[in-house]
Amino acid sequence: MSALNRFAENQESQMQEKLRRIEDYPEYAGLRHPLDVLATPHGPWEVGAGVILSANCSDATVNRVLPQFLSTYPTPDSVRTATVSAILPLLPGISHLGHKAGYLIAWAKFLVEKKGDVGHSAQPLTQIRGIGRKSAALILHRIKGIDEGMPLDIHALRVLDRLGWFPATRNPAVREKQLLREVSVGHRYRLFLSLTHHGRQICLARDPKCNKCRLRDECAFARQNSSHRT
């Protein structure tokens, strides 16, 4: 093995160790996703509907609105012939609700066509209107336990950007690829939960609590903004 290859392997091992530290925070053990349909057992229709509505919308709002929507449209078959205008009143407070009502209908039609089977890969799911790689990864993990992708939200992305462990990028797809190279199957969803929880509780957007962060000594943001340490 060449010296260059040994150096690359050593760098990769160090990165994996750093990421594992976040995943293994004792206080993050047993974390559940703040979106109810991802934290407790639900079927494909409910999970997909919740994930679709949660895009650019708070989990608390979705948790409040989704039960009312599902009481009116409890199954994919009940909504696949519905109109957008009929769905809109059931989504108060949901962002981009006009688009999302259409996405819910598309999701229902997909499930009816597939007899409720979401498959085993993210790629077919991303062909459905309103479902990107993040949403597909969340659905697959909740329904099938498949740890295929790295579903990064704004909180997880903020933590990774501030740490400065990877080359800078504003593209979530690029960041996902960086992580997929380092994080093995079986650890991806758990790391995502740890990252998003860290972003919600410690690495806040406006007032990060660097003094409470276990990673502050290895964080580029903390080094550049030492006033946040106190």
What does this structure look like?
This protein is mainly α and 230 residues long. Mean pLDDT is 90; it is low at 1-11. It has 2 domains: 3-30 and 150-229, Helix-hairpin-Helix base-excision DNA repair enzymes (C-terminal) (Endonuclease Iii, domain 2, Orthogonal Bundle); 36-144, Hypothetical protein, domain 2 (Endonuclease III, domain 1). Helix 3 packs across helix 4 (59-72) and helix 3 packs antiparallel against helix 9 (133-144). The longest helix has 21 residues, at 3-23. The protein has 13 helices and no strands. The chain starts with a helix and ends in a 6-residue tail after the last helix.
- Quaternary structure classification: single chain
Percentage of residues in helical conformation: 55-70%
Uncertain residue segments: 1-11
Average pLDDT rating: 90
User: How many distinct beta strands?
Assistant: 0
Largest sheet: none
Q: How are the SSEs ordered, and which strands pair?
A:
Layout (H helix, E strand, L loop, with lengths): L2 H21 L12 H4 L4 H11 L4 H14 L3 H4 L4 H4 L9 H17 L8 H4 L7 H12 L9 H10 L8 H11 L5 H14 L18 H5 L6
Helix pairs in contact: 1-12, 3-4, 3-7, 3-9, 10-12
Keywords, separated by commas or semicolons:
230 residues; Endonuclease Iii, domain 2; Endonuclease III, domain 1
Give a brief outline of the structure.
57% of the residues lie in helices and 0% in strands.
